[in-house]
């Protein structure tokens, strides 16, 4: 069973089988269009909530991706180097960016539920 | 969307197609459709794409001295085209800049159409009005005409099936005036993709029906609606300049490697500085570079380095769907404009290796027919 939290800048963090994964939301992937390049951090790197931990590039745009919580990178999705299009195909599944350890899981409470996030996008759209 | 931007007659059509709409040059235009830029781009290379380019501006020049006026204000020599001919040309400034690049259509020597860039419609209109010392009648009909482009190797099949008779791509850079549903149509053998293609300049009222007819006729030719995103990647691969990137009021026609458009045997506004540049050379020239996909794409403004020293700047850069590499236009010192030369280019504050490449990045295929 997976639980997803979202932040305003369109990254999600998911808890899947006790592991945290971070990526960009389906909404963000759709807005960016065809993704051609993803730049990811090194395993072991640490980021504070709000830090940029990588970039995602579509044909028309380059965007930073921001840490939704204080975290340490435990794995990066190496497949995105050759197949960045996976982010479009399945952003909240196979198109994840990093796996992470959180130093303070209570920070998740500051993020949005899927319902709140969807509502935010609907309002903005 | 709260905006004062103009809607084209195809606005509702784009919404029905679920396009991602963006504001560009004062118009709400489709950036891409759910298909995505890469597939739209490849459809134009492999079969056919259809574009709404209604934002482009249309001016008409009429009068006994229309030919003299066009000769004076543009750098290309209009004597090279006859009636029904189209010419790529520019409005140079006496200071060595460019007001705009455009296509000139000769209906006859007393009647021309000019198609100019959307971002420059107002500026161009002021420019042509200011330099009308020839007593010609000028008309800005930009709000009356829509432009639909069908580009790609199957373009002729699409047009024929949509009821355009005797359509052939034998003569690029020509046009015909005709009527469809009783309304004026300019059927132009022109494009901005490097592929065979047509551009249909039509009165607004028939644009939605024409789009529908072309889409229906194009079904069996795998036609795909394509947005401004694909238009940009296509023209970049084809090595075609975009005003505001490769060209602006500080770049000269010579620097932009467009000397082939200069009619040296005629007088025109801004000729002196171009002549001097031809004789003395320029400090920079427009060239290209390519870089591997794994580094991400160089973007406009990125610095280019030759042997470690900053030497130039990227003006347009993108992932190239046809080459699966990154490509860019850049201004470089003339001595660095050498095919295969090793460069480096800034991609998100890091220098990555790149190779100097002479545009076009993808060969034009205007004469390759596909049945």
Layout of strands and helices, then pairs:
The complex is a heterodimer of chains A (125) and B (371).
Chain A: E1 2-6, E2 11-16, E3 19-24, H1 26-32, E4 35-39, E5 46-47, E6 52-58, E7 62-66, E8 71-76, H2 79-82, H3 86-89, E9 98-102, H4 114-124
Chain B: E1 6-7, H1 11-16, E2 20-24, E3 27-32, H2 37-46, E4 48-52, E5 57-62, H3 66-73, E6 85-92, E7 98-108, E8 111-116, H4 121-130, E9 137-140, E10 145-151, H5 155-161, E11 175-180, E12 183-188, E13 197-203, H6 207-218, E14 223-225, H7 228-237, H8 271-280, E15 285-291, E16 303-306, E17 309-320, E18 325-332, E19 342-347, E20 350-357
Parallel strand pairs in B: 1-3, 4-14
Antiparallel strand pairs in B: 2-3, 4-10, 5-8, 5-9, 6-7, 7-8, 10-13, 11-12, 12-13, 15-18, 15-20, 16-17, 16-19, 17-18, 19-20
Helix pairs in contact in B: 2-7, 5-6
Give structural attributes:
heterodimer; A: 125 residues; alpha+beta; OB fold (Dihydrolipoamide Acetyltransferase, E2P); 6-stranded antiparallel beta sheet; 3-stranded antiparallel beta sheet; 4 helices; 38% strand; globular; B: 371 residues; Gyrase A, domain 2; Alpha-Beta Plaits; Elongation Factor Tu (Ef-tu), domain 3; 3 domains; 6-stranded mixed beta sheet; 6-stranded antiparallel beta barrel; 20% helix
